[in-house]
Amino acid sequence: MKKNIIVGQSGGPTAVINASLWGVVKEGLAHREEIGKVYGMVHGIEGFMAGRYLDLSAMEEEELDLMKMTPAAYLGSCRYKLPEDLSDICYRELFEKFRQMDIGYFFYIGGNDSMDTVSKLARYADSNGIDIKVVGIPKTIDNDLILTDHTPGYGSAAKYVASTVREIVLDSSVYQQKAVTIVELMGRHAGWLTAASVLARKHPGDNPLLIYLPEMDFDMEQFAHDVEAALEKQPNVIICISEGISDARGQFICEYADAARLDTFGHKMLAGCGKVLENFVRDRFGVKARSVELNVNQRCSGMMASETDIEEAAMAGSWGVKAALEGATGIMAAFFRKNSSPYEIECRGVDVSLVCNQEKKFPEEWITEHGTDIGEGFLDYVLPLIQGEPERKMENGMPVYAYRKAD
Amino acid sequence: MKKNIIVGQSGGPTAVINASLWGVVKEGLAHREEIGKVYGMVHGIEGFMAGRYLDLSAMEEEELDLMKMTPAAYLGSCRYKLPEDLSDICYRELFEKFRQMDIGYFFYIGGNDSMDTVSKLARYADSNGIDIKVVGIPKTIDNDLILTDHTPGYGSAAKYVASTVREIVLDSSVYQQKAVTIVELMGRHAGWLTAASVLARKHPGDNPLLIYLPEMDFDMEQFAHDVEAALEKQPNVIICISEGISDARGQFICEYADAARLDTFGHKMLAGCGKVLENFVRDRFGVKARSVELNVNQRCSGMMASETDIEEAAMAGSWGVKAALEGATGIMAAFFRKNSSPYEIECRGVDVSLVCNQEKKFPEEWITEHGTDIGEGFLDYVLPLIQGEPERKMENGMPVYAYRKAD
Questions:
Q1: Share of chain B above pLDDT 70, in %
Q2: Cα angle vertex B172, ends A154, B71, to 5°?
Q3: CB contact under 8 A, A174 and B306
Q4: Which of residues 321-340 of B touch A (CB under 8 A)?
Q5: pTM flag (> 0.90)
Q6: CB within 8 Å: A267 and B258
Q7: CA–CA min distance A309, chain B (Å)
Q8: CA distance readout (Å), B270 to A278, B134, B250, B257, B259
């Protein structure tokens, strides 16, 4: 008997979360004998609970393919945590909706918080004898999910960060005056994305000269020593830092600016750690200093999307559907690396309850030079993930993207 | 008798300033009977006065072509103003160096400040009967040079801004909660680059809903009214502003944060106007608010370089050499638009002393909706400038750029 699919996106955007959605839809449509419709939740589980969804199987082929290459979440997203107590009424209501819509397969594309949703729904279905397969598709630029070699979204973000830092290095090196440029990158607790800035170097000894991850305690005086040594090597020093660097006491460096962050209206002025270090460097060394916060584009830009990442994201979505059709539930699609050179991965299912709410840190053995550089081991790991440039659809000089018409 | 060329780059980087340099070198090399070597000043006139230059005519063809596609200034740059007094000793010293190097042609690629250098050197040569042709090649992302339809560098920056804002709009629209995102763009006095954000709209009524340029007085209460009306139209409002917006008294909005910009070390915290407006919106409307400062990448990114811009920049360089060989001096290569559709321009020389130290503002007739939007007239003007995507040289997943080996 035919059943329907429902799929949702959750958490922050990435360049390839829509490629995973594409994978789910295409694979669903390829099993016409078992699958009826492929529904998409609008704004994740939160929007769905408010009755918002659409029929993705009705999408035009061309629009669907455009969606695959569109960054950010086509369906809209949410940050919503389901109650811990599985006897909460919302579960009964949710599964009643699933029953009315004849849902047999539930897919959720997201990070560790979203895998918590997958875990809870799978357990509810299991303990209530409901035949709905619940599968998680990983997604996060942070690359911090455990039990998977890497996460879809990371490769494109890493490629964007590396390319952008390479350009910032060019820009920062045009003048001969001594100057320090601090680039602040995303990553509250894990330094995976900041580590990718090491790829920006055009030759050994090139900028960025210093790289700091949240995995190591950050010390202002040690930093001053590092900067002093770097300025002796070359006049233009570029430093990459994770937004989440903190000191030995666990205080975030960005909080060093807390006390005085008020503007003339009396509002709090939130400053990043880049701004804090910029001021510190200017004051200590008397050199030109500036900070650049790459901000949301490192997660949502399609300009430097990695073709490998896009295709792997699509594969994760498609693998999830096949696994669910074969009866799997309560799992997340995970990548296992069989080989780095030549690069080869395969999808396997891992217990989603082990993945959710966990964080994979950047390995300490890849942090070198007393916490200021990244080692070769990381390069072997990351290089395969940033390979390939997809063809981009352009119209009148601008990239064309798919979007949901007013709903 | 053969003479040599010397060429320099000055002022802030752009995505195509090296394409103009390429144009000068290639055109120089094409006139082997009249031109000996093509020298490049390292770090502009300032570096040259300190004896730093290199021989660009010795560059490998492949490296030269890579340089054409490399953003930021290959030769390095400077911000250096020659003395007003042409009897200052530095002029005698400069022209003595030119004599020793057998320079017959001087080219300077830069913005309005750099054209001041061109004007002074041309006047000095003229009044001292020295036969050196001095020609300016325009360059600035700000598009604020007068007597030219537009400036090389603007098209690529406009395309980058428009594409990036389109991505920020996608990113900012994934959640259903009301939110305001403020994007701060370069432009202290002229709004050309910020105006390009209007190209980000995917359909009429799309974000960015509000656009503010420095050409109009900015009023906080009017802004509050505008934001309120925009939030009634849709939950996610994206606003683009120039860094240089100021109020009716001429005070920059970013200065509204002055009084309290101290961190815990007692350092001044410089905040942009985006941060000021972010705080204002959060406080006034109680909605999620954030600001994004595009920062240096809008001027130095090759990711969204416009092929039209690259080719026009090269043409300006090459035209300058031809004009100088025909005897022109004291001019800047300017673009005259013969037609917008089909787009057609030609180079002509304009008196550089009229161009330098002047600023071309964004036309008020293109500012609509009481200073919050950009009119159709601008679209006809700007669209031809962002057309075409050049092929990018990639290696191991990363863009490859030319750079000066340690000098």
A1: 96
A2: 60
A3: no
A4: none
A5: yes
A6: no
A7: 12
A8: 10, 40, 19, 8, 10
